[in-house]
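Lay summary

Proteins are chains of building blocks that fold into shapes. Our project writes down both the chain and a compact code for its shape. Here are two examples, one after the other.
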Amino acid sequence: MTVSFNEVEAMAKKAARGAGYAWGMAEEAGWATRWLCARDLDGCAALAMALQEINGTKIRPISFENGELRVAEGAACPVHAGAALSDFAADLRQGPVRLSHVAVPMLLLPFAANVARRIGEPVTVRGNAFEAVVQADAASVTGDIAVVSDSVVVTSGGTLGDAASGAARATPTKADWATLGEFAHRTYAPATEASRLKGAGAGTNDND
């Protein structure tokens, strides 16, 4: 299936909200998913996996200390970790930023690209079995970005390899799109008796 990038961003934002993200973080998730899809990387699959891994109740605060972003327990949400990485962009010039136990690290790439734009040079993201180099509007990825990476190291510099080609539209699988739709559906208010009656027209028979 194919969908527009506007549809991707809207669905991703609503799905993240349905998974328990605050509106600001849901907007970040929508933007990040769109960024990946626009570079022919499967952002919809990445977000679907992340939402299933994190699923709202598991979102934990992230702290930054001694060059490391971490959560107290469990896997770090990549959207929250990415937003934190953006906040500490200047620190990347002083040395690597490390992240422990990150769910779906592919979702870090748009935020790393934002850091690259701010510091004016490429940024390299390395995990257990992958390496990605990003610039403000491009990314090259080698290896397998796993569902969870025990350790991710982000450094300034790097050489962009064969960048993922741009795409005109996103091509999520039906399964991933359905997963996002299920999370998005949680944002819909349940029907009340009054709303059902209003939607059906007059709720009583007014014939005398």
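And here is the second example, written the same way.
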Amino acid sequence: MNRYIYFIVILLISILNCYSQNNIIWNNDGTAYIPLKMYRTIYHQDVLKEDFDKLKIKGNDTLVLVDNLIKKGNKIGVKRRVISERRTYMTLKSFKQHYKRPLTKVDSLSFKFNNNDTLVLVKDYKPRGVSVPYEKVDSTLLEIYKDVVYRKYHSKKSDKRKEYMVLWTEPIKLYFSESVDKEYEQVIRNLSMKISNEIDSLNISFVSNLEESNYVIYQIDENHSHKYSKNMSANKYINFHSYWNKGKIYDTKLEINTTTFKNAEVNKKYLMKSFIRSLGHFYTTSKVPCESVFSNCNGQKITFGETDLKLLKYHYSYGICKRTPLETFEENHEKAKQTFLQTGRPLYFIHVD
């Protein structure tokens, strides 16, 4: 067999949030979503106004719904390209992990080989994904959100660091160290219950074993000195450190240090503020009142108010592509708004995790 045959290897465990521009999304009824660039190549025309309801947004890509892709492809000689994009191979090991049926002689006829790997053709493969309509949000709240998540209005021009949207995608399993005072623990329990009830995609539960947790809260005082994170070695009050990968938070340690600041009522306010901010990679802003948990004020009157809840809800809504930089975030909003203004119908965003 020709070792230089071109092939596509797709491992199920490596599917990302937003697909590449060359991806075609096939529907069960035979229709498909294709990138706008491919649509123009095949049909030699641009999308008409009456076709705007057939559009979807996927990351930076605009997709168009078509119902006769292969037939059209034959006419313009792109059938080979279309078929190659539909043929999906996975390694033999991955196939056995995800499919419980034995391999047949028919399967073996389609084997390909890459170095030491045997590749199996998967004819019924469909990419995972959920389409969610664009969620319109108040313009004032949206600008606050951009500052809280991306530092849009208070980052320095000399700062070249690009900020990304960061959030929890797995349920939070919270563990309280025995060092934590009950009044501090109760603050977190009450707040967690409120958040879980208000935000469907953010689930917080409590576990009694450290090994089962992905979020640990502990206290440092005259009787307790054990720190659960080396990144908290310099902390002198209430602070947290989160770990994430590709915009997904997977572990957090929150420390309550009362060795210097012993006013429990004030401590509870700042504990609440730190806990809320640990639910993403949030910055403070001057665009909210001083009592907001997202405010850059240092006042002692801190509450988790209506605007704070709206910001957190929006962060965990899926009416926009997630874990993107500011530029992509704003481009998606503009595309969605223009489509809605012209057609009265929302664009849909595709999420696979």
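What can we say about the second shape? The chain has a mean pLDDT of 80.
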